[in-house]
Protein backbone atom coordinates (compact mmCIF):
# COMPACT_ATOMS: atom_id res chain seq x y z
CA UNK A 1 0.00 0.00 0.00
CA UNK A 2 1.41 3.37 -1.08
CA UNK A 3 2.32 5.86 1.54
CA UNK A 4 -0.22 8.79 1.66
CA UNK A 5 0.50 12.34 2.83
CA UNK A 6 -1.46 13.52 5.83
CA UNK A 7 -4.38 15.80 4.90
CA UNK A 8 -3.11 18.83 6.88
CA UNK A 9 0.14 18.83 4.91
CA UNK A 10 -1.79 18.79 1.63
CA UNK A 11 -3.91 21.78 2.65
CA UNK A 12 -0.87 23.75 3.75
CA UNK A 13 0.75 23.25 0.37
CA UNK A 14 -2.40 24.32 -1.56
CA UNK A 15 -3.21 27.56 0.35
CA UNK A 16 -0.16 29.57 -0.88
CA UNK A 17 -0.87 28.50 -4.46
CA UNK A 18 -4.53 29.58 -4.15
CA UNK A 19 -3.50 32.96 -2.76
CA UNK A 20 -1.10 33.57 -5.67
CA UNK A 21 -3.72 32.68 -8.28
CA UNK A 22 -6.32 34.91 -6.64
CA UNK A 23 -4.04 37.94 -6.63
CA UNK A 24 -3.07 37.35 -10.26
CA UNK A 25 -6.66 37.17 -11.47
CA UNK A 26 -8.22 40.05 -9.48
CA UNK A 27 -7.42 43.52 -10.92
CA UNK A 28 -5.91 46.08 -8.65
CA UNK A 29 -8.34 48.91 -7.70
CA UNK A 30 -7.29 52.20 -9.37
CA UNK A 31 -5.96 54.95 -7.17
CA UNK A 32 -8.30 57.94 -6.74
CA UNK A 33 -7.66 60.65 -9.26
CA UNK A 34 -6.06 63.77 -7.81
CA UNK A 35 -8.46 66.65 -7.21
CA UNK A 36 -7.81 69.57 -9.53
CA UNK A 37 -7.97 73.25 -8.64
CA UNK A 38 -11.35 74.82 -7.94
CA UNK A 39 -12.77 76.63 -10.97
CA UNK A 40 -15.85 78.82 -10.49
CA UNK A 41 -16.41 78.89 -14.26
CA UNK A 42 -16.49 75.08 -14.51
CA UNK A 43 -18.79 74.83 -11.50
CA UNK A 44 -21.34 77.20 -13.02
CA UNK A 45 -21.05 75.83 -16.58
CA UNK A 46 -21.86 72.35 -15.29
CA UNK A 47 -25.21 73.65 -14.00
CA UNK A 48 -26.08 75.15 -17.39
CA UNK A 49 -28.17 78.17 -16.34
CA UNK A 50 -25.63 80.82 -15.36
CA UNK A 51 -24.34 82.03 -18.72
CA UNK A 52 -24.94 85.73 -18.02
CA UNK A 53 -23.26 85.57 -14.61
CA UNK A 54 -20.33 83.68 -16.14
CA UNK A 55 -20.02 86.40 -18.79
CA UNK A 56 -19.79 89.15 -16.18
CA UNK A 57 -17.40 87.11 -14.02
CA UNK A 58 -15.12 86.79 -17.03
CA UNK A 59 -15.34 90.39 -18.30
CA UNK A 60 -14.78 91.87 -14.83
CA UNK A 61 -11.96 89.42 -13.96
CA UNK A 62 -13.84 88.67 -10.73
CA UNK A 63 -13.97 84.97 -11.61
CA UNK A 64 -10.18 84.80 -11.82
CA UNK A 65 -9.91 86.57 -8.47
CA UNK A 66 -12.20 83.98 -6.89
CA UNK A 67 -10.20 81.08 -8.32
CA UNK A 68 -6.92 82.60 -7.20
CA UNK A 69 -8.10 83.21 -3.65
CA UNK A 70 -9.71 79.83 -2.98
CA UNK A 71 -6.79 77.91 -4.52
CA UNK A 72 -3.89 79.90 -3.10
CA UNK A 73 -4.97 81.01 0.35
CA UNK A 74 -6.66 79.69 3.47
CA UNK A 75 -9.47 82.22 3.16
CA UNK A 76 -12.69 80.74 1.86
CA UNK A 77 -15.36 82.50 -0.18
CA UNK A 78 -19.11 82.42 -0.77
CA UNK A 79 -20.66 83.20 -4.15
CA UNK A 80 -24.34 84.01 -4.63
CA UNK A 81 -25.00 83.15 -8.27
CA UNK A 82 -28.03 84.70 -10.03
CA UNK A 83 -29.47 82.46 -12.73
CA UNK A 84 -30.06 83.56 -16.30
CA UNK A 85 -33.75 84.02 -15.45
CA UNK A 86 -32.75 86.39 -12.66
CA UNK A 87 -30.96 88.64 -15.14
CA UNK A 88 -33.78 88.35 -17.65
CA UNK A 89 -36.27 89.52 -15.01
CA UNK A 90 -34.41 92.77 -14.32
CA UNK A 91 -36.31 95.92 -15.34
CA UNK A 92 -35.64 96.85 -18.93
CA UNK A 93 -32.43 98.85 -19.40
CA UNK A 94 -31.05 98.17 -15.90
CA UNK A 95 -27.71 96.80 -17.08
CA UNK A 96 -27.35 99.30 -19.92
CA UNK A 97 -27.63 102.18 -17.45
CA UNK A 98 -24.62 100.96 -15.49
CA UNK A 99 -21.13 102.17 -16.28
CA UNK A 100 -18.16 99.78 -16.27
CA UNK A 101 -17.32 100.46 -12.63
CA UNK A 102 -20.89 99.81 -11.52
CA UNK A 103 -20.99 96.53 -13.44
CA UNK A 104 -17.93 95.36 -11.51
CA UNK A 105 -19.53 96.51 -8.25
CA UNK A 106 -22.69 94.61 -9.15
CA UNK A 107 -20.80 91.33 -9.59
CA UNK A 108 -18.66 91.89 -6.50
CA UNK A 109 -21.84 92.42 -4.50
CA UNK A 110 -22.53 88.71 -5.03
CA UNK A 111 -19.14 87.63 -3.63
CA UNK A 112 -18.46 87.33 0.11
CA UNK A 113 -14.81 87.01 1.22
CA UNK A 114 -15.60 84.21 3.70
CA UNK A 115 -16.92 80.67 3.53
CA UNK A 116 -20.47 80.31 4.87
CA UNK A 117 -22.48 77.12 5.16
CA UNK A 118 -26.26 77.28 4.73
CA UNK A 119 -26.65 77.01 8.51
CA UNK A 120 -24.16 79.83 9.02
CA UNK A 121 -26.25 82.16 6.86
CA UNK A 122 -29.30 81.62 9.09
CA UNK A 123 -27.53 83.05 12.14
CA UNK A 124 -24.86 85.33 10.71
CA UNK A 125 -24.43 88.85 12.10
CA UNK A 126 -25.66 91.50 9.70
CA UNK A 127 -24.68 93.26 7.57
CA UNK A 128 -22.34 90.82 5.86
CA UNK A 129 -19.63 92.60 3.94
CA UNK A 130 -19.23 91.78 0.25
CA UNK A 131 -16.27 92.38 -2.05
CA UNK A 132 -17.96 95.49 -3.49
CA UNK A 133 -16.95 98.95 -2.29
CA UNK A 134 -18.03 102.50 -3.05
CA UNK A 135 -16.03 105.41 -4.49
CA UNK A 136 -14.47 106.18 -1.09
CA UNK A 137 -13.84 102.54 -0.18
CA UNK A 138 -17.01 102.15 1.87
CA UNK A 139 -18.11 98.48 1.85
CA UNK A 140 -21.38 97.20 0.43
CA UNK A 141 -23.28 94.81 2.69
CA UNK A 142 -26.01 92.17 2.57
CA UNK A 143 -28.51 91.20 5.24
CA UNK A 144 -29.47 87.57 5.84
CA UNK A 145 -32.49 86.27 7.72
CA UNK A 146 -33.25 82.61 8.43
CA UNK A 147 -36.46 80.87 9.40
CA UNK A 148 -37.38 77.16 9.26
CA UNK A 149 -34.38 76.20 7.14
CA UNK A 150 -35.08 79.02 4.69
CA UNK A 151 -32.69 81.90 4.14
CA UNK A 152 -33.52 85.27 2.63
CA UNK A 153 -30.93 87.79 1.51
CA UNK A 154 -31.42 91.52 0.98
CA UNK A 155 -29.25 94.11 -0.73
CA UNK A 156 -31.42 96.93 0.59
CA UNK A 157 -33.32 97.26 -2.68
CA UNK A 158 -33.78 93.57 -3.61
CA UNK A 159 -34.91 90.66 -1.40
CA UNK A 160 -34.79 87.04 -2.52
CA UNK A 161 -34.47 83.48 -1.25
CA UNK A 162 -31.33 81.38 -1.30
CA UNK A 163 -32.20 78.09 -2.92
CA UNK A 164 -29.98 75.32 -4.17
CA UNK A 165 -26.43 74.92 -2.92
CA UNK A 166 -24.47 74.44 -6.14
CA UNK A 167 -21.31 73.80 -4.14
CA UNK A 168 -21.14 73.53 -0.35
CA UNK A 169 -17.68 72.18 0.43
CA UNK A 170 -14.96 74.48 1.76
CA UNK A 171 -13.22 76.59 0.77
CA UNK A 172 -15.92 77.69 -1.73
CA UNK A 173 -19.68 77.76 -1.29
CA UNK A 174 -21.92 78.65 -4.24
CA UNK A 175 -25.65 79.25 -3.84
CA UNK A 176 -28.35 79.85 -6.44
CA UNK A 177 -30.39 83.07 -6.55
CA UNK A 178 -33.51 83.85 -8.56
CA UNK A 179 -32.93 87.62 -8.39
CA UNK A 180 -29.96 89.90 -9.02
CA UNK A 181 -28.80 91.68 -5.86
CA UNK A 182 -28.68 95.23 -7.21
CA UNK A 183 -26.98 97.36 -4.53
CA UNK A 184 -29.17 99.92 -2.79
CA UNK A 185 -26.40 102.43 -3.52
CA UNK A 186 -27.44 102.27 -7.19
CA UNK A 187 -31.12 102.97 -6.59
CA UNK A 188 -31.07 105.14 -3.45
CA UNK A 189 -27.82 107.13 -3.31
CA UNK A 190 -27.04 108.76 -0.01
CA UNK A 191 -27.39 112.51 0.38
CA UNK A 192 -24.04 114.35 0.19
CA UNK A 193 -22.37 114.74 3.54
CA UNK A 194 -21.11 117.98 5.05
CA UNK A 195 -17.67 117.07 3.78
CA UNK A 196 -18.99 117.35 0.24
CA UNK A 197 -20.65 120.77 0.75
CA UNK A 198 -18.95 123.65 -1.08
CA UNK A 199 -16.94 126.10 1.02
CA UNK A 200 -18.46 129.57 1.57
CA UNK A 201 -17.41 132.13 -1.03
CA UNK A 202 -14.60 134.41 0.11
CA UNK A 203 -14.57 138.18 -0.30
CA UNK A 204 -12.02 139.77 -2.64
CA UNK A 205 -9.84 140.84 0.25
CA UNK A 206 -9.41 137.19 1.26
CA UNK A 207 -11.79 137.22 4.23
CA UNK A 208 -15.03 135.28 4.46
CA UNK A 209 -17.10 138.31 5.48
CA UNK A 210 -20.42 139.27 3.99
CA UNK A 211 -20.00 140.87 0.57
CA UNK A 212 -22.80 143.33 1.25
CA UNK A 213 -21.08 144.50 4.42
CA UNK A 214 -17.72 144.73 2.70
CA UNK A 215 -19.09 146.89 -0.11
CA UNK A 216 -21.23 149.14 2.10
CA UNK A 217 -20.21 152.77 1.53
CA UNK A 218 -18.98 154.93 4.42
CA UNK A 219 -21.23 157.70 5.74
CA UNK A 220 -18.95 160.37 4.27
CA UNK A 221 -19.09 158.92 0.78
CA UNK A 222 -22.87 158.54 0.94
CA UNK A 223 -23.47 162.35 0.56
CA UNK A 224 -24.85 163.23 -2.85
CA UNK A 225 -22.95 165.77 -5.06
CA UNK A 226 -25.90 168.28 -5.23
CA UNK A 227 -26.18 168.31 -1.45
CA UNK A 228 -22.49 169.09 -1.16
CA UNK A 229 -22.83 172.02 -3.57
CA UNK A 230 -25.72 173.52 -1.57
CA UNK A 231 -23.80 173.24 1.68
CA UNK A 232 -20.71 174.86 0.22
CA UNK A 233 -22.82 177.70 -1.29
CA UNK A 234 -24.48 178.43 2.05
CA UNK A 235 -21.15 178.65 3.82
CA UNK A 236 -19.78 181.00 1.14
CA UNK A 237 -22.87 183.23 1.40
CA UNK A 238 -22.54 183.43 5.15
CA UNK A 239 -18.88 184.52 4.88
CA UNK A 240 -19.73 187.21 2.32
CA UNK A 241 -22.54 188.59 4.52
CA UNK A 242 -20.24 188.89 7.50
CA UNK A 243 -17.65 190.68 5.38
CA UNK A 244 -20.19 193.25 4.06
CA UNK A 245 -21.53 193.98 7.53
CA UNK A 246 -18.02 194.68 8.68
CA UNK A 247 -17.40 197.03 5.77
CA UNK A 248 -20.60 199.07 6.32
CA UNK A 249 -19.89 199.49 9.95
What's the overall average pLDDT, rounded?
Answer: 78
Instruction: Please report the number of helical segments.
Output: 10
In the predicted model, the low-confidence regions spanning at least 5 consecutive residues are 191-197, 206-214, 218-223
How much helical structure, as a percent, in the residues?
25-40%
Residue share in β-strands: 15-25%
Helices and strands, with pairings:
Layout: H1 7-25, H2 40-47, H3 51-59, H4 62-72, E1 77-82, H5 84-88, H6 100-108, E2 111-112, H7 118-123, E3 128-133, E4 139-147, E5 150-154, E6 159-167, E7 172-177, H8 184-187, H9 211-214, H10 225-248
Parallel strand pairs: 1-7
Antiparallel strand pairs: 1-2, 3-4, 4-5, 5-6, 6-7
In short:
The chain contains ten helices and seven strands. The chain is of the alpha+beta class and 249 residues long.
What does this structure look like?
The protein is an alpha+beta fold and 249 residues long. The chain contains ten helices and seven strands. It has helices at residues 7-25, 40-47, 51-59, 62-72, 84-88, 100-108, 118-123, 184-187, 211-214, 225-248; strands at residues 77-82, 111-112, 128-133, 139-147, 150-154, 159-167, 172-177. A seven-stranded mixed β-sheet has the order 2-1-7-6-5-4-3, sandwiched between helices. β5 and β6 form a beta hairpin. Mean pLDDT is 78; it is low at 191-197, 206-214 and 218-223.
